[in-house]
Structures are given as structure tokens and as C-alpha cells.
Amino acid sequence: DGGSAEYLKCGFVPGTFPTVDFGPTSDENIKAAFDDQRKYMPGGHGPLVNSEFYPGWFVLWGEKSARIPSTDSIMKSAK
Question: What percentage of the chain's residues is helix, strand, coil (to nearest 5)?
């Protein structure tokens, strides 16, 4: 549940397709996440999949409001 090799190493189930997840972030972080995903793909080939893209977060009763990224940041990361 994340975008790094450590998550894939500890949580990847052999015989299933590995995916990563991340929210709005820099191009460098997105590239790093997909590079790590490729390391666990059969033969290093396949679609690059972000299985969970959260543009914001929920807030529970009594908590301070969550930091919501700008629309531009969300759209740039989603491209």
C-alpha cells in the first residue's frame, strides 16, 4: 500500500500483478514509483498502474481538516 519497492517487497503476492499507489506528488516520485513497479512485473513489462489515487483525504469527527492539494497539482499527477 504505497509507491516504493519496500511495499512491493513486503506485500507483493507472487502470481498477481503488482501495482503501486500515490496521490498528488512530483514527477520524480511518480517515476520512482513506476520504476519500482517494473522491478516486480513479470519480465519487467506491463501496464503502469496506480491502484489508489487519493486527491484528498477524509477527516474524522473532531480532527482538524485535511490538507487538500490544489486542483492543478491533482491534475498534473494524474496525467
Answer: 40, 5, 55
